[in-house]
Amino acid sequence: MELNYLDLYTSLVRANSLLPNPSSEINNKIEGFKTTVTNTPDNPEHYVGEYYNGISEAVYEIADKIQDYVDDLKKLSSKFANLRGITNDSKINIMLLGETSAGKTTFLERVYGENCGDTGPNPITAFAVVHKTTNQAKSYLKVNFTENFAFEDDSTSEAFKHFLKKYDFVKQFEINKNEFSTHGEEFSLSGRDKFMDFIKEANNYPTAFDEIIWYHKDSRRQLKFTKYADFIDMPGSGGMTVHSDKIDVSINRYGKDVDVVLYLIKPDQGIPSSYSLLKVLKKQLDSVSSNPMFYFVYQQKNNDVFAEKVSSLKEFINKDEATDAIEPFNTEERERFSKALVLDARGAKDDQTMANIALSSLLKRFFVEKGKQFYSSLYAVNTPKEFEILESGGNNAPMVNSHLFNFLEETARECYGGKLPEISKVKDSFKQKFCIEGDFTIPSFYDDLKSTIVSLKNEINISVDSLFEYLATSSGFLGSKTRFFDPTKYGMEFYTRYKTENSWKSLMYNIQVLHWLRLSYNGNQLKDLYAKNVADSIMRTFREYLDRMESITNEIPVEAGLE
Q1: pTM of the model
Q2: Average pLDDT, the chain
């Protein structure tokens, strides 16, 4: 792909042009702007909105670039760890959890710019609803019923039949008294005017539904964040027993693929109501997931200062048995939740600005952490061992010295069991360590270069054989030989011979020359070949994007740690 090093800076300049560098007066009033809206002529609210939107736009633009580079770089190997979320063909999976009436569904309405389910002060959401964005012309619901389910009483069964009839689903069911079976058939519901009523009524029959996926038509009402993530809206904890059962079922179903957990907290509480719900949640997540990023989230509007809410939450988590807290976290639980982050997304139900900046902050952290893991794995997978031997080490000492030291260290470790290794095996290990086995010629090499490499390799092998022959003989009695290698005895001799004897120095130099020749001529220049093998030029630019993403700072913090 053609690289343009100015792309990043062009994007940032365009994004930063939206940032008015708020005055200290605006910063002092920012908490008020996040929670209330006034219409006085001197209100600089529009500056705040532009500031937030500018920060978010910078994150989104760099995220797009990172995804493009990951898609190119991942072609180098199939051995990478999970890249979900930082490629163009995948999204971050975010699970919304929290106590009943904490505002999970309301938060989604701010994300998608439209109603996403029934809301209210009482437990409502009775099963998981997955929210995705579709490129289809219309929104639709994909409804998967539980394969076989039954109701305990006739009245519920009759009500459910009416429900199926109302939405024209009854013909696909086999109904036997209170028992229902769909034979695994798929159901789809179109027409947004029906969605809210359907989900509201469906909440009356939580055991009947295995999964509901709401595909939102892509529109300008949605936050751009939906381009990068899907949401799983879960029932609230601490509500009805049947809802709690559904949480367990849904975590078992989706937990292994969850990348981020958002745990919403009620604004009137400021902290979770008890430790027990989080204790259960930790066990559920630990049993199925790969340690997702965990956020405590404030989303409903109030006038509390964010720093004070973070402080209260930190105090809640760090309480132990010596305090008056009822069943506080044990050491393991306290350690887990102290690593969580806190996200401030507070705003009115129709406010998308604060939801946008909070989620873009989350996206920034996710892309940077996942991108760095990917970057490290690229080097681990693609750096040729021969090149590692040639790279400079500390104090500009050749890496070949480090390889020699590591070779002796590894050989010594093999002796810890009390049995010395055979010298022949140590010799084989030496050749493997310094990559001097196999055919080093390439069909495209000229004949004279092939002859040079073959001759050099033969000379190296003769020197190695001679060295280990000397070690075997010198250790024997009256010229007899030994089969075994004693690293304690020979380690210093290896190092001394390398430092003092030309024959040993010549051997190590020849190993370096062999690798320089082969790697250099294989790509005309060594650096060009290395860049080709590991996409070095693309990786440098990719790393620049990660660093620039990480360097974006928000003067008005919406994210905090608890450690």
Answers
A1: 0.69
A2: 77
